[in-house]
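S1.2 Input.
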Amino acid sequence: MTYKALTKQETEYHKIRLPYEELFEQVIENAPAAIAILDSQMRYVKVSKRWLKDYQLKEGNIIGESHYQVYGGDPEHWQEIYQRCQTGIVHIWEEELPQEKSDSRYKIKWEAQPWYVKSYSDIQDDYGKNPLKKGDFGGLILFAEKNLIVENKNNNFHKNADFFPSKEEEVEALIANIYECRQSEIALRESQEHLKALITNTPIILYAIDNNGVFIVSEGKGLEAIGKKPGEVVGQSVFDLYADRPDILEQINHVLAGAEGSWITDFGSVIFENKATPLRDINGQNIGLIGTATDITCRVKAEVELTQQVQREKLLNRLTSQIRNSLDFNTVIETAVQEIQEFLLLDRCQFVWYLHETSEPYWDVEKEARHSELPDLRGRYKARKIGALAEQLLRLEILQIDDVENVSEPEWKHLLSSLGFSSILAMPTRSLNGAIAVINCVRTEVARPWNNSEVELLSAVMNQLAIAINQAELYAEAKEKAEELERSLHKLKTTQSQLIHTEKISNLGQLVAGIAHEVNNPVAFICGNLHIGIRYTNDLLKHLELYRSIYPNPPVEIEEHAAQIDIDFISEDLPKMLSSMVFGTDRIRDIMQSLRNFSRVEETYAKPVNIHEGLDSTLTILQHRLKKQCKRPAIKVIKEYGDLPLIECYSGQLNQVFMNILANAIDAFDEYNSTRKYADIERNPNMILIRTEMLDDFHIVIRIKDNGPGIPESVVSRLFDPFFTTKAAGKGTGLGLSISHQIVTEIHKGQIRCISVSGQGTEFAIEIPIEQQPTLHQCTAC
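S1.3 Output.
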């Protein structure tokens, strides 16, 4: 009975608690940090459960106790904090403490805020000695965030199940409990205004919203930052107040649904960090939410400034690193203008040279980073049209125009307006060679003053670019000298190799011509006699047939001899044999003629020739490589000759070009076929297409195309370089295409191009004029 009566009284006691204390309890217990409220004597008035848990305390043991005794620490440190908060300053600090019985440590982030008596004048200091008045310093509110909570494993709680109080003891306990409840009720009433004063003077916004989204509490000094008064929005719907802020409503609905929430709200001039948690009744049912909003504007601004400073340092570090690691000045400048344009949110950023070597000086906008919708302003601008203000740049003075509309010089103002400029910041520098360079920052849409940090950043960047400019000039001079030496050495090596190659080709041509001449004489003798022998043989065979028709029954000896030598077979096969010999000698004569046509050692000037004959002669010489091999079918050659006039050229040299290209195509086929099966090659046979046609009235083009594996783009760009070859060591000199290029371009004043796509074959296009210039000389390398 005693237990039930006490519970009923406690229930009644809870019913008479005022809303502000309920709200205060919710704030204390749901705050994301441990909270303790101290009076002006640094004694505990109220603590949150998290405070008790974090510091392993019992609430009844510390209320009224001094913070110095309970928490410990340096009394002078806490006295200094107390004195600072008495002046209205919010003190924030961190401390690092060791973990008991462990090598670990943990940090505590502290925040101490003063609170003041608002209206209740009976709140007393020293527990009844000195009454506090409205506006007096009431004490401190401590917030503590502990990043490592150590659980006390030594707390063991024991209940004694054998304790049964007597009736007298129950009555005495009931009377004592009633008295304590009465005293608690009086103390509660007296402390309500105390609690309200604490809430009102808290430098944040405390708010509570019911399930319908209606504010039921709105307190705290933080309301002043958004132009509101405590309690002003109570009774108003959050969905009406923030109808245009779906981001806020989404977070509120999230918490009203039962989840904790944390978000940032930006009101333009002020930024709040919100932390909210569901508000529940004694049965655990959600009845709304309770939350705090802390003004973090200063913190955000500090973070932004720190971020910008870090970004500036990173930008300078990137440029410095690139300048040190790269000798490509163009890359450094392109990166610099792009980085500046993006970092300063510019519409344009330009790198400009002042050039005065010509008769009329001009400004050259060499690099520009801009928004894609803006026109490209790169190019040269005459210095006399820029105006007198540009003289500042020539004196190495910074040109800063916050608003073009305020420019007094009409000519300069008109030019800038016509370019769409609104604000300009130009930073000049001079190189070691005396050249003036300028970084020009431009805003086009809206004029805005340039702040000191932007000017300082641009100045620091320009100092780095000045180093890059000087470094580039020194490197350019050294590189030019090195390249000149390299060109001289390369030219010397190329000339030497070409002279050796020329001598070999010349000797080989003479040898081929001599062999062709020597072979041609006996072949001509054989060929001439073969025709006579064929006529004699035919006559003898006719005579034999006539003899047989007249004397069908010859003597036995003649018949036996005829059977022995198989006279019928001889009569049939002898003409065929003689015809084969004629064909062979004709083939020898054709090859010898092709060799003579190919070598053309006797030519000392350009002569009109039939290009097709040269192509056919080259194909004849390469016939042994084009025909069927054991590992592949024959390479098919398709000739699409156009109607061409005689072409004035050095045919022997041009034939060498055809030979190099066709031989390379055959080599490419052989390498490609080494990884293919014979049947695959038959299904997709190797082919070479030779097409000739008129390019215009004065030029022809010879196209030699294959369906081989193609040439990578990286190799195509180097095909005509001397000594460059993709063949294995010992299989190529790297001079064939180089000399071919020289024959076509220097000797015949034409062009030779390679068009290739990897996997789709290669085409060489040789363009030469129909008639050569009279001043053309023979190539010494051929």
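S1.4 Remarks. The radius of gyration is 52 Å.
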